[in-house]
Amino acid sequence: MPQRGDIVVERLTGKRAIVINVTGPEEVTCRFGDGRLEDRYVFELEPSPSAFGWLLSLLGAFGRPSEGQPPSVTGRVRPLVLRQPAS
Question: Which domains does the chain have, with CATH numbers?
Answer without folding.
Answer: 7-53 (2.30.30)
